[in-house]
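User: quick one, sequence for these tokens?
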């Protein structure tokens, strides 16, 4: 009994000391503890898991995968993307353990390559995040609008979209404790939602034979051969596997971030891969007719999202509506987490002087949250509202921008291995496998950046290319003289 009490006392003492130790470590990197450090390991994982949100990405872009590669897109595309995404996640987790700041990718790139690398990394990350918020919450509006009895018109969807963004801004503004609790609840909603939806589909709905899940079909309007359409269809899975850097973006609010943040990143990808695959099996085997799903209309003649059509055709209007509500709830949680994630990145970059008006965007409210950055996120996301026919383009831009920001510090870390500039390892690292994992991750990101840039008249490529040109001109004319990088950056860099 005394031994148990002794262990409990030691555990409580360590839990009490840990935030102070974390604050001292942050101080060694040159930053004061301004944000509220209350996020535990599960909450850190929950944030990234909520943003990955299998009931958002895999659902809203389900028709894209179905059009391009048919059921086989789900059967083979999802595990393929999950496997290679894990190499990126592992590479990032190693860096998160070494440099546990909210600046995340920007700070990693600055430490490994200099402030110029960090500046471009931060801007690609912010651009990808803001596009992600727009994609997530607009996708949620598509599901919520019919649930609240509004027609799927542009004005109806836009009003619901604005309401969703407003709810996310208000909750994020008034406290990280509430956000952390809701993120924990989000994991339950996602897991229970998948179990309930898949269980209902398997128990109540007629099912296709298992061989249907591996059926190779394509109905793309461009007339592409199957192999190319399948590759373009990988956007469905790759759009889902974004946002796991959120665990790193709340490093300064996480207790013991050198250990908990890396596990949050890796577990978010791993759990999402497994649970998401189960969801895709259930949805795909419940399809009665692919054309009927892709061409579904409501009573007013407006397009119905493919997954809503699958659920209603398989389960009936009432049960299908309930399943749709579960998916919509998960999407709402995903958007909430996305605003948390993006606002912390903007706050950290503004703290280093990287944004116009940095003095405003780095302010912390009396609730210990970066309130101006939070409201900036939702205003920009609303301004970038997705028009008809551009959803795949915006999600492509989000994926490319985010993965550019992920892979730049990974490349710099790989380049520095075995040299004097290699940074000290954190307690979580890949050991002798690190270089090989980094190379696979780099090759994969180059591959997806190319394939996602080509479709839709190369609009995603033009957007990313235009952004890169603007950033380059801006940096070389102004920012290379003004931007000093993180406070610990070597002045000569």
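Assistant:
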């Amino acid at each position: 009994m005394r031994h148990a009490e002794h262990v409990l006392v030691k555990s409580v003492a360590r839990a009490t000391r840990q935030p102070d130790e974390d604050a001292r470590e942050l101080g060694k990197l040159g930053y004061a503890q301004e944000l509220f450090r209350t996020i535990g390991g599960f909450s850190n994982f929950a944030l990234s898991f909520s943003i990955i949100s299998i009931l958002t990405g895999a659902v809203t872009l389900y028709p894209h995968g179905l059009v391009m590669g048919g059921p086989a897109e789900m059967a083979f595309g999802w595990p393929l993307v999950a496997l290679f995404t894990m190499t990126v996640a592992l590479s990032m987790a190693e860096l998160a353990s070494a440099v546990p700041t909210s600046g995340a990718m920007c700070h990693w790139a600055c430490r490994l390559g200099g402030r110029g690398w960090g500046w471009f990394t931060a801007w690609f990350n912010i651009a990808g995040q803001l596009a992600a918020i727009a994609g997530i919450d607009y996708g949620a509006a598509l599901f919520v609008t019919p649930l609240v009895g509004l027609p799927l018109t542009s004005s109806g969807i836009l009003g619901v979209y604005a309401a969703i963004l407003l709810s996310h801004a208000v909750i994020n503004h008034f406290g990280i404790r509430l956000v952390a609790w809701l993120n924990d609840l989000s994991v339950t909603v996602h897991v229970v939602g998948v179990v309930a939806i898949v269980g209902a589909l398997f128990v109540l709905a007629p099912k296709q034979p298992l061989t249907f899940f591996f059926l190779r079909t394509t109905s793309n309007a461009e007339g592409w051969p199957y192999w190319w359409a399948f590759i373009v269809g990988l956007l469905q899975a790759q759009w889902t596997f974004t946002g796991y850097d959120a665990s790193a973006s709340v490093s300064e609010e996480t207790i013991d971030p050198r250990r908990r943040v890396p596990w949050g990143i890796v577990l978010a990808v791993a759990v999402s891969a497994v649970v998401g695959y189960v969801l895709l099996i259930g949805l795909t085997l419940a399809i009665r007719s692919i054309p009927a799903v892709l061409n579904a209309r409501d009573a007013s003649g407006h397009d119905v999202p493919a997954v809503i059509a699958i659920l209603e055709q398989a389960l009936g209007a009432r049960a299908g509506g309930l399943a749709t509500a579960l998916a919509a709830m998960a999407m709402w949680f995903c958007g909430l987490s996305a605003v948390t994630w993006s606002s912390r990145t903007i706050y950290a970059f503004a703290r280093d002087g990287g944004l116009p008006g940095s003095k405003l965007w780095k302010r912390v409210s009396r609730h210990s949250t970066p309130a101006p950055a939070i409201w900036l996120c939702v205003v920009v996301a609303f301004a970038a509202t997705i028009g008809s026919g551009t959803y795949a383009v915006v999600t492509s831009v989000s994926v490319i921008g985010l993965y550019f920001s992920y892979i730049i510090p990974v490349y710099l870390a790989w380049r520095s291995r075995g040299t004097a500039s290699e940074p000290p390892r954190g307690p979580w690292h890949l050991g002798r496998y690190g270089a090989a994992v980094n190379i696979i991750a780099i090759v994969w990101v180059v591959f997806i950046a190319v394939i996602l840039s080509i479709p839709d008249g190369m609009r995603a490529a033009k957007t990313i290319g235009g952004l890169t040109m603007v950033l380059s001109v801006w940096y070389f004319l102004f920012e290379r003289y003004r931007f000093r990088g993180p406070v610990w950056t070597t002045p000569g860099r």
